Amino acid sequence: MVLLRSLPATLPILFVCEISFLLGHGLIMTLLGVRMSLEGFPSQMAGLLMSSFSLGFVLGSYFIEKRIRSVGHIRVFAACAAMLAVTAMLHGIWINPWAWLVWRVAGGAATAGLLMVMESWVSGESTNDNRGKVLGWYLVISTMSLAGGQWMLNLADPATSVLFSVAGMLFALSLVPLSIHRIHGPSSSNHDVAHKIKLRELYKRAPVGLVGAFTGGLMAQAFFAMTPFYGQEIGLSTQQTAQFMAITTMVALVAQWTLGRVSDRIDRRKVILCMAAVMAATGAFISVAAGYSYLALLVVACLHTAMLHTLYSLSLAHTNDWLEPEEVIAANSKLMIWYGIGSVIGPFSASLVMQVVGPEGLWLFLGGAALSLAVYVSVYLLARRRRRVDREVEVEQEPYAPLPIIETSHYINELDPRFEPHQLEFDFAHLDIGVDDSDQAESEEVSAQASVP
Q1: pLDDT digits (tens, 9 = 90+) for 141-154
Q2: Is 184 within 8 Å of 73 (Cβ atoms)?
Q3: What is the distance between the terminal CA atoms of the chain, rounded to a whole angstrom?
Q4: Which residues of 416-430 are buried (b: 16+ CB within 10 A; e: fewer)?
Q5: Which of 96, 362, 402, 409 has the smallest C-beta neighbourhood within 10 Å, fewest atoms?
């Protein structure tokens, strides 16, 4: 708590809200996969339900941002938390796959709203002096809370409605810190000054980043959505399933820092290629490991997810290397759209493969997606090496900044400390001039009139 005292007073309150929300989110995402297996839902229905969550998330990312600007952060946070609490408990009241599909779309939109509120708020409260520290706290708290929620699957029998009620209570409790403290909305945001960049131009500059973001969404959401279902189908106990999900989530903390530092020294495209190759290999081998022992399954899966949970943030970092600072927010929002498209396609596609070949189809799907990415990056790098006539300009890579493994909107990129110099230049210019925009415009007008003969 001593370290938190050095942050703005609003941030610890927001972090407490985040902990409660992500505990509930981690619990219900894992619980749904287990419960669908217990209820005998076919794998393609399970995949469709999980894809509907991602669809709701993408839709919420588009429409809820306007409500934030209209009615404010606190009201939108309250509405989304209430919606999540209601939909969580409705899952336990009415066990019907088509009803669950509606709850999942609504839950995905509400989750997008909560994340947008928290990320834009945290971004607005951070400064150039503490931006790196805030991003580090956000990363650790989000990952540990998500893993903690997955561990909570052991609190009660997943065949009952108790855990759905627990998830609902956690979502409702996330409202309490905001309700009992007098706090203000975010004090600043750089989102409004972002420059636009066309998708074609973005792909021309960083095709590996765009394809990597899409593949990251495809694989990550398939993993989170279908792995609890997979665990039940191969005979894992509820405790083992919860442990498996929590450990494979927490490994992301170590993986992001380690692989990020490696990518600061080596071309990130080559790092992404190696990561994709490792994921393809482990995807093919993991079914064999599962037949050997639970420990072998866990070890191989951790190696796979260490790469998987880092893929999107590394693709984002590579893309940012080819952008001007003022283009980052707009470009990253486009990467998030493609990540969202992948997250809609991934769970249902994985479930179809599982329907055909059995539970191990999940890892065949993940391995196949990783292999496709590896082939694409290899072909691109080979073609680039031969296309010397184009004289493609090399860029200096910016330091890597890890990101949370949960679905995230483009607001969190404003916390990225790599773009501090651009913000500092703006601040110094403002201080040196010593006047506001209206005074400066008036001065320029007077000078222009004086120069007229």
Answers
A1: 888 999 999 999 99
A2: no
A3: 66
A4: bbbbeeebeeeeeee
A5: 96
Query: Which of 152, 167, 180 minimizes the C-alpha distance to 20?
Result: 167
Class of domain 10-184+196-435: mainly alpha
pTM for this one?
0.78
Contact 162, 156 (CB under 8 A): yes
Residue 337 has pLDDT above 60, yes or no: yes
Q: What φ, ψ does residue 42 adopt, rounded to 5°? A: -65, 155
Sequence-distant (6+) residues with CB within 8 A of 318 are 206, 208, 209, 212, 263, 268, 269, 272
Name the maximum alpha-carbon separation found in the chain.
90
- Between helices 43-71 and 207-233, what is the axis angle to 10°? 130
Q: Within 13 Å of residue 446, how many CA atoms lie on the same side as its CB?
A: 6
Residue with tokens 């031969």: 386
| CA-to-CA dists, residue 135 to 101, 110, 125, 138, 284, angstroms | 34, 23, 12, 5, 35
